[in-house]
Write a structure and sequence with these properties.
Length: 333
């Protein structure tokens, strides 16, 4: 069994189906687009594609697009030449240069602004880039694996993502299933996370009780595998016995599925558009409602609200700007 295979844990049918695509995706030089909710393991999947390919001996360079400041995106991706701008005292290589011969993983690519999308499209078309301040283009051999937690088709329809870039990225695609759709994998995942955490804390062998497993199986896991790992890690750190019981797992009492169902029932009757138009509108309405509620809960504190939403602060601010929300409107009086 290869190293990457050992990191992808699960025997559910939907998970094995996407896992079986890795050899095909790794052999192709085409761009790969990985879609899936936050926390489903998109970077692990991207690493599996890289390390099972002929590029395994070359760099795997991950970059979170949501964490790149708008005014620095081009510099981070393509680098700059000496004297390109004030303070550019030496040449700097960008991430494309760093990943040459290997794989560049563009996570949360849906967060890239329009100018950055245009520059990325040019690189994908021409297989070359030009560093800031340089008069010469440089050829590059990089396999692009992109990931998104939003359906790019609907962002294209909403004119928030370039259609031509979408088609360039969506040559080969795969959708990772959320944890709630592969519940039979939860016990094995939890045991693996618990084993690693127990070793880290020097606590020896810790078991999962039947009650703890039932509690995990009944939960919706909106944060997916990442949330499960975090919950187990925290429980292992606090454990005083050699078995975790249900109360040892810090999980919310109410599941988000109930809120989502209520939201759908309230919004749908008032809308008359087709399916795609309706979905775009519902995503827009949900985002605004969710952002307003989470800002209110944290009295307009963006850092706390972004952390609670499990979003990068900059990506969270972009969403606020998109919906015209001012944090000051939610501050405590």
């Amino acid at each position: 069994m290869s190293t990457w295979d050992e990191t992808l844990i699960g025997t559910s049918r939907c998970f094995l189906q996407v896992k079986s695509m890795i050899p095909l995706l790794s052999k192709s030089k085409s761009t790969v687009l990985i879609s899936g909710e936050t926390g489903t393991g998109k970077e692990l999947f991207a690493r599996a594609i890289h390390y099972s390919s002929e590029r395994r001996g070359k760099p795997f360079v991950p970059v979170n697009c949501a964490a790149l400041p708008d005014h620095l995106v081009e510099n981070e991706l393509f680098g700059h030449s000496k004297g390109a701008f004030t303070g550019a005292l030496a040449e700097k290589h960008g991430l494309f240069h760093e990943a040459d011969g290997g794989t560049l993983f563009l996570d949360e690519i849906n967060s890239l602004n329009m100018p950055a999308q245009s520059k990325l499209l040019r690189v994908l078309q021409d297989q070359e880039f030009r560093p800031l301040g340089s008069t010469k283009s440089r050829a590059v051999d990089v396999k692009i694996v992109a990931a998104t937690n939003t359906d790019l088709r609907y962002l294209v329809e909403a004119r928030q993502f370039r259609e031509d870039l979408f088609y360039r990225l969506n040559v080969l695609s795969v959708v990772l299933p959320p944890l709630r759709d592969r519940r039979e994998d939860i016990p094995e995942l939890a045991r693996q996370f618990l084993k690693r955490s127990a070793e880290e804390f020097g606590k020896g062998c810790i078991q999962l009780s039947t009650d703890a497993i039932k509690k995990m199986m009944d939960y919706a896991w909106p944060g997916n595998v990442r949330e499960l790992q975090s919950v187990i890690h925290r429980a292992a750190a606090m454990a005083i016995n050699n078995a975790l019981e249900g109360p040892d797992l810090d999980l919310p009492d109410h599941e988000p599925r109930e809120l989502a169902a209520t939201f759908v029932q309230e919004v749908m009757p008032a809308d008359q558009g087709g399916f795609q138009a309706m979905k775009v509108k519902m995503i827009d309405e949900f985002e605004r409602t969710y952002l307003s509620q989470i800002l209110s809960a944290h009295q307009g504190n963006i850092s706390k609200a972004a952390r609670a939403a499990r979003k990068e602060r900059r990506a969270f601010q972009r969403l606020l700007h998109k919906h015209g929300l001012d944090r000051r409107s939610f501050s405590a009086a």
